[in-house]
Design goal:
By secondary structure, this protein is α/β, with parallel strands linked by helices. It contains 11 helices and 13 strands. Strands 2-8-7-6-5-3-4 form a 7-stranded mixed beta sheet, with helices on both faces. Strands 9-10-13-12 form a 4-stranded antiparallel beta sheet, covered by helices on one side. It starts with 21 loop residues before the first strand and ends with a helix. The structure holds pyridoxal-5'-phosphate. Pyridoxal-5'-phosphate (PLP) binds next to helix 3.
Length: 348
């Protein structure tokens, strides 16, 4: 059974508590943004509205993605896109929504706000078997790689889903790509032909360490029998993306930005490995992950860390009490974490 709706969803990152000195609770790239992107943001023209059609932005993104500009739809970030796609699905007759469990809370929150029936799935097999036996139009959320687990569904799942999509006309597939640019291990398992049939949500702000810039884009499927691009577009407010958002999205596919990202993945892989080793040494159980964040079960309660300016993401709201999600952080932040843990251990 899914949790009842609340007025707000829980997130990592800033909260209303004391200053956070070392933030392990957000999945944003801790290496910050490259200088060229920071400069592009500074030069964004805030004195005028952006083009309400975002024509140049859509053409630029489409060119980099090898698709048509009509299929690239700017969003105020994927959280906005999740709400908008869920509303479009509802207006097009969808009453059932499938969400990964554990998974990003906004999928469930968006569906419950509209009174839709929400079903959680814990594994790819469970999802396939449920979809095979159920009829009626459904919206299915997929997060690859998944938050909070940091794990990938296997290629066999994705091929089986592709076959099922052919058989079941009423399936709208929504693929959240928030963390694909931060993949450190393995390769994207989603077949290109299946991705073409999904609503793909992209939010470069995480990989660029710019989560305060509320901008992203959706790639509409080549053909969705239920929800058209227009259904999605007409639900957006005018100028849904700010001037800074446009600047960030224009910079995203630039070769120097992508080269910076490739280098930063190497650093993040090193930080992730050293952090996992040190956590295991401290008696924590760490789940494997393909991205620079992971689920872990601490040896003892760690609520005291927040008072020391160190924030981890409590995983209770993901249905995992006693667990935390934490991102790989720089050596000085890791040092602060382990020093505080040791002090508390000594005082215990
Ligand atoms: C899986 C997932 N999707 C979407 C989002 C929201 O992204 P945005 O900042 O683009 O709204 C998050 C943010 O944490 C996330 O973890």
């Amino acid at each position: 059974m899914m949790q009842p709706p609340t007025w707000t969803t829980e997130h990592g990152g800033p909260d209303s508590g004391p200053p956070i000195l070392h933030d392990f609770s957000s999945n944003a790239n801790p290496l910050g943004a490259p200088d060229s992107v920071v400069q592009a943001l500074q030069m964004a023209d805030r004195q005028r509205y952006p083009d309400p059609d975002y024509r140049a932005l859509r053409e630029s993104l489409a060119h980099s993605l090898g698709t048509h500009a009509a299929r690239v739809l700017p969003t105020a970030g994927s959280s906005e896109a999740i709400r908008r796609l869920t509303l479009a699905a509802f207006l097009c007759g969808v009453r059932q929504v499938w969400v990964p469990q554990p998974g990003y809370g906004d999928y469930q929150a968006a569906a419950q706000a509209l009174g839709l029936q929400v079903q959680g799935y814990a594994t790819g097999e469970a999802l396939l078997s449920a979809l095979t036996s159920q009829a009626g139009p459904s919206l299915v959320w997929l997060c690859e790689p998944c938050n909070p687990t940091g794990q990938s569904l296997p290629p066999s799942f994705w091929s089986a889903l592709a076959s099922l999509r052919h058989q079941r006309a009423g399936l709208t597939l929504a693929l959240d790509r928030a963390y694909e640019p931060l993949r450190l291990v393995g390769q994207d398992p989603v077949p290109a032909a299946l991705a073409e049939q999904c609503w793909q949500l992209c939010s470069p702000n995480k990989a660029l360490g710019l989560t305060g810039v509320r901008a992203g884009y959706a790639i509409a499927p080549a053909d969705d029998p239920h929800i058209s691009m227009t259904d999605f577009q007409i639900l957006a407010p005018s100028w849904v993306v700010s001037a800074e958002g446009v600047a960030m999205l224009l910079a995203w596919h630039q070769p120097d930005t992508q080269a910076w990202l490739a280098r930063s993945r190497l650093t993040l892989a090193l930080w992730m490995a050293s952090q996992q080793t040190a956590l295991a040494h401290a008696g924590w159980h760490c789940e494997p992950s393909v991205v620079p964040f992971m689920l872990a079960r601490p040896a003892h309660a760690v609520g005291f860390l927040r008072a020391h300016g160190i924030k981890l993401r409590d995983a209770t709201s993901f249905g995992l009490p006693g667990w935390v999600r934490l991102s790989a952080q720089a050596p000085h932040a890791q040092q602060a974490l382990f020093q505080t843990l040791t002090q508390m251990e000594t005082a215990r």
